C-alpha cells in the first residue's frame, strides 16, 4: 500500500503519517526500489491506534507507549488499563481546573456593570489592583 491509500484508510493525512514515522511512533515501512514507502496491514493498525489514541487525549509519548504495547506480544492488559486510567484521572483533573476557571470568570462577569464606564472590576481584579467592593 502507498501512503495515500494508508491516509484514506486511517483517516490521517500523509503529512501526519510521515510525522509519526519521523518521530519513530510507528514501525518504519520498507521502501521499494523507487524509494516509495510500502505499508502493510500492521502499519494500518499502528496508525489507526495512533489516530484514535490522539482523539481520546493521549500525547505523543503516551501514544509511543501504546504502540509499543500493541507490538509487544508479552504485554499485560493491566499495563494498558493502568495507562488508560491514568489518562482518565488527568482528564478529570483538567475538567476540575476548567470548572474552577469557569466559575471565576462567571463571578468576575457578575461583578462588572458592563456599562459605558471605563472602570471595570474584571480588569481590576485580573490586574490585581484597584481593590474595591466590586472586585472579586
Q: What's the SSE pattern?
A: HHEEHHHH
Rounded mean pLDDT score: 93
Q: Largest beta sheet: what is the strand line-up? A: 1-2
Find the structural class using helix and strand composition: mainly alpha
Helix share, percent: 55-70%
For the largest beta-sheet, the strand count, sense and barrel status come to:
2 strands, antiparallel
Count of β-strands: 2
Query: How would you sum up the global shape?
Result: elongated
Count of runs of 4 or more consecutive helical residues:
6
Low-confidence runs of at least 5 consecutive residues: none
| Radius of gyration using CA atoms only | 24 Å
Approximate strand percentage:
under 5%
Spatial separation of the terminal alpha carbons? 60 Å
Keywords:
136 residues, mainly alpha, two-stranded antiparallel sheet, 3% strand, elongated
Amino acid at each position: 500500500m502507498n501512503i495515500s491509500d494508508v491516509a484514506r484508510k486511517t483517516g490521517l493525512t500523509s503529512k501526519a503519517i510521515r510525522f509519526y514515522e519521523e518521530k519513530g511512533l510507528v514501525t518504519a515501512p520498507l521502501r521499494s526500489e523507487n524509494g516509495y514507502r510500502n505499508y502493510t496491514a500492521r502499519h494500518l493498525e499502528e496508525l489507526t491506534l495512533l489516530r484514535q489514541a490522539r482523539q481520546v487525549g493521549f500525547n505523543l509519548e503516551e501514544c509511543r507507549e501504546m504502540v509499543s504495547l500493541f507490538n509487544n506480544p508479552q504485554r499485560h492488559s493491566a499495563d494498558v488499563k493502568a495507562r488508560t486510567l491514568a489518562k482518565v484521572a488527568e482528564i478529570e483533573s483538567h475538567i476540575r481546573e476548567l470548572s474552577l476557571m469557569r466559575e471565576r470568570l462567571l463571578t468576575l462577569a457578575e461583578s462588572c456593570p458592563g456599562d459605558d464606564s471605563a472602570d471595570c472590576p474584571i480588569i481590576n481584579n485580573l490586574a490585581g489592583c484597584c481593590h474595591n467592593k466590586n472586585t472579586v
